[in-house]
């Protein structure tokens, strides 16, 4: 804590503060004084930059309390200092107009790029403080009405103001950058903006719901969706967030002051009343020196002095008591106010808790109703379950009784059988043996299929046997009576029956052995059948596995062959034989479209293969076709790069290589069936989209225009050029009339001379355009034969495009020259711009003449008339340049310097400044010349690609190069 205290004492004085209000009518002196104060504030603050960094690190070691808050706030102060040091044009409150924002970037895209990065860093620090404050608050309670919560929320008002300005400037700068740079270069800026937009929108929404901010500041709400920087028109939809601070009401801080004034008034009134009582006792103060007791005797003087001292002591005591009373009253007022604030906070918290309790009671009441319904359902289910169990027990008891009765019947039946066994042994055995013999013979004649049927009917047969046994039991009883009657008569034939029974027993034994042999054969046949079925199933499984392995091998070989084809195409990027080849962008785009349709076909085949793995022919065909189309696309992309400018060529080369790598990854999903469902062609499609975009940029201009529309386009461009010349002439006449009405002297003379030469130039151009129309009409009539003019223009499309380009250049040059002349007349333009525009018009007319002379007859009178008109344009251009130069010199002569009032030191100072200015201008001239050379070089390259200048001597095609290589 001692270290913290010493660190906090290191800053002896608070940071200087700049007053933003200026008096009305202060003028330039007030503005300069404010600028100086702002600069001085920044300089004075930078002295404490290192101390603020040390304090930030020190507070950062405290993870609890206000440590992290102080550390983050000090980091924000340091970032703000660095930002204003790098960008001195920005005021402390960050309020700037659009024009000032453009001046801050000095109209340089690099400066705007760096300025956007610095704004992102600044806004990131603001958001960090915002988030740190909210993380330290307990949002489940009404923290904004407590003293601790307001202490933490108070710095966020300035943060909200800065964030609104930074967000507005960031959006405008990003739109400006997107109009100058490609979208891929600014991908990082867009990602960082999206992240900060989400955070800022959430923090603004959370802040607007706090009671503390509602009476102090009106927080704006950001739009639902972020701006679309890829669409330039979206800038018009952007609305700058405005933070509104209402008029400040009487703050609570002013109340103690008023109370103090009241106490002071009370003190004064008491003092006055005491003085009046003192005057009543000792006499009025109007008398001369009432305390002069020198004339009185000594005894009276001592008593009065004693009384006076006593009264003075009483007065001092009363004053001390009064001061104590004032102090106690102030302390009591403050305590009561704090208590009131605490009670209000507790009241708000109790209201919040009461609302929560009400919500919880509603929720519990709903849960109680639901539980009652569930309990009723449970009781119904329990009753139904009890009923079911009761029925189940009744059924079980009934089953047990039936089972007992059945077992009793079985036991009775067994007893009856044992009782009648001896009686019916001879007859029943013989008869049963004969029945069994017949049945067994009949069963042996049946097939194995009937054996299974007999097993199913076994229960029914047992029932029938039971019925037959009952019948036999009845008949046996009858026969028993007969046998008992004939028992005496059968004794004689007992021997005979005994012999027959022996024979039947012997025959029955042989039949039992035969049945046993048949059963053994049946079991052997069943085992053989099971073995055969098992072997058949194993054979079928092996065949299916073999077919599956063959399909895997076939698919793997196809994938390997496809990868080799693609890798071979990637290796051909460095193939020397392709250096003499050249491809076209339109052919490359055709290949890309074929690849896209092939990818769709491959995805359909994959879906079919996953649904039915036996059908693999379609997938193999699609993989092979994709490999060959990919190889053709990569090779045609490499050959197209040979004709493209350097930057698009590098982009196309990288895109083709990336496409080949993504295709290899895409084909790698065919390696295993487990990852086949995860195959995704998004990366391959994005590469194709990128190649398509680059290919469309490489298409020659005018290629998207239909050939049959070229004739109409030529007429339209010539008519538009004529209209532009007429409009320019009318504007020059209007400017000349305004100059005559408002200017005098040298300025009027210069303006009349310049505008008169411009009018002459426009008239000469108008004559040139008419002559060009006549010559083109003659060329078309003499060269088209039986074809129509549109067919002639379509047949000679390159010549037609040259005419269109020249016409556009002439019309554009005339419009620009009139704008430059208007600025020169108004005194806001440069004479050099007017001279450059006139020379540009002369060059454009020369291009139009050259385009018209390509197919014209050299002895044509219209050609001679066109050449005469061209010479007239050149003379008019020279007149414009001459009048501009002379007017410039004439105006410069009127603005010559006056050296009469200058001293030698001042002249020497002016001479040094002039030398510095000359060196600066020479350096700028050299840089501008280099820039002009680069611009002309780039213009010639783009114009050559767009107009197809190289098609006359294009290198051999890709197919011819491949044929030569083979």
Automatic annotation (TrEMBL):
The signal peptide, as residue positions, is none
- Keyword line: Actin-binding, Coiled coil, Cytoplasm, Cytoplasmic vesicle, Endocytosis, Membrane
The transmembrane segments are none
By sequence similarity, the record places it as follows: Belongs to the SLA2 family.
Q: Name one GO cellular component term.
A: cytoplasmic vesicle membrane
Q: What is this protein called?
A: Huntingtin interacting protein 1
Cite a single Pfam family from the UniProt record. Answer: ANTH
Q: Which organism is it from?
A: Sus scrofa (Pig)
Q: Does the keyword Cell wall biogenesis/degradation apply?
A: no
Please name the InterPro entries in this protein's record.
ANTH_dom (IPR011417), HIP1_clath-bd (IPR032422), I/LWEQ_dom_sf (IPR035964), ILWEQ_dom (IPR002558), Sla2_fam (IPR030224)
- Domain of life assignment: Eukaryota
Region (Disordered) residue spans: 1-22, 947-966
Q: Where in the cell is it found?
A: Cytoplasmic vesicle membrane
- Alphabetically, which GO biological process terms does the record hold? endocytosis; positive regulation of cellular component organization; positive regulation of transport; regulation of endocytosis
Q: Name one GO molecular function term.
A: clathrin binding
Q: Which residues form a coiled coil?
A: 308-535, 909-938
Query: Where in this chain does the record put each I/LWEQ domain?
Result: 702-943
Entry keyword Membrane: yes
